[in-house]
């Protein structure tokens, strides 16, 4: 194997270990700590479904989540072993970035399932919430209250900058089908970022019991992830178009893997920071007679 092939395999190995081993282990440990230190008889509002013993079901769900991540990690390690066994050599025109992105989507499946489970739990919490007294806390509603205006400005400027770079690279036929599809897909990604931030700031409360301070921290995390994801998408696409313009496509697979890992680090860091158990107010989940 060439130096570039070994470098790519090492970078891809880091992607496998980071997203499918390290962060899932951290998440499993965090949820396990909540279950251990906040039992149903003391914090009944954390376990809203009376027909299902969530305290018993949750550990099994965590084991399933961990098992799925291990299966995905095994797939990734198998790909690396296959590349080494076949003497993989990077194509000067790139191409392996498609495999990197496809594997990144595979890595997201366990995390998406966990998010769906959390959404179901919040739905049960809202259904079980018997507090008929509506409160209207004066909470920040401007995006500048959650993230630096400089970051917002950067996101707003980088998107049209990428469009200029991209249209310049495609040259004389900017309106062929693949160009239009690319523009629509990337625009859609940015719209999703805007929608995610807007939903977090102005949408209904997911957790009806969460304290105002914890809710602010959670919203700030979602808004920051949305803004920095928008920035990251634009920077990555600008870098990709620059690499292709200079005929350096051979580096694109490794660069794509690094980009995926940076997004994972950003998202996980902000998510874990907004859900620090030691800083969360769990008293709101106690029974009404507590």
Task: Please render the helix and strand layout as text.
Blueprint: H1 3-37, H2 54-85, H3 97-128, H4 149-170, H5 177-202, H6 212-245, H7 252-274
Helix pairs in contact: 1-2, 1-3, 1-7, 2-3, 3-7, 4-5, 4-6, 5-6, 6-7
**Could you tell me the strand content as a percent range?**
under 5%
Uncertain regions spanning at least 5 consecutive residues:
none
Task: Output the number of helix runs.
Answer: 7
Largest sheet: none
End-to-end C-alpha gap:
65 Å
Mean pLDDT across residues: 84
Secondary-structure content class: mainly alpha
Using the alpha-carbon principal axes, give the shape. globular
Give the C-alpha Rg. 22 Å
Order of helices and strands: HHHHHHH
What is the strand tally? 0
- Percent in helix: over 70%
Describe the protein's architecture and organization.
The protein has 290 residues and is mostly helical. Helix 2 runs antiparallel to helix 3. It is built from 7 helices and no strands.
Explain briefly what this protein structure is:
With 290 residues, this protein is mainly alpha-helical. The chain is built from 7 helices and no strands.
Q: Notable features of this structure?
A:
mainly alpha; 290 residues; globular; 7 helices; 0% strand; single chain
